[in-house]
Input
Amino acid sequence: MTHAFTRGLICLALCGFAGASISAESGHGEDKPADSDWVSQTTQTCASCHGKKGVAQTENFPTLAGQYQDYLLHSLKAYRDGERKNGIMAGQVQGMTDDQFKALARYYSKQESPLHTPSLD
Ligand code: HEC
Output
């Protein structure tokens, strides 16, 4: 077992716990507006795996920062709707609305990033 992989497992255990406690307090529920407060609160949970502002610190998690907004939005919907199967991410996005996904996709796509994404304009 590699060191990075072990760290990933530890993070999964811890992050899963953190995610559960945060969602119990604030809720990802459909009643929450997708405003900047919601985004900054929610992305704290995402940061435990995807890194601060979406730049992942280990190879176990994808970098979200600077990724195409459409791609992020598509992925989030696919996890929620079961088209893209991943137990961890399905749990993260359960109960979120399309508006909330749009706000998250917009946020991450605009962060500074090591990814190279050619402009489509
Ligand atoms: C417990 C760890 C963990 C947390 C917390 C987490 N993710 Fe993820 N995320 C993953 C893993 C692992 C993958 C890769 C899954 C796969 O192979 O499809 C992933 C994949 C993704 C992808 C697809 C990226 C790509 O390049 O295809 C998006 C988008 C994403 N996560 C967004 C989020 C958002 C937004 C949050 C917070 C609401 C979040 N994640 C919270 C672990 C996590």
Residues 12, 15-16, 19, 42, 45-46, 48-50, 61-62, 64, 72, 75-76, 84, 86, 88-89, 92, 104 surround heme C (CB under 6 Å).
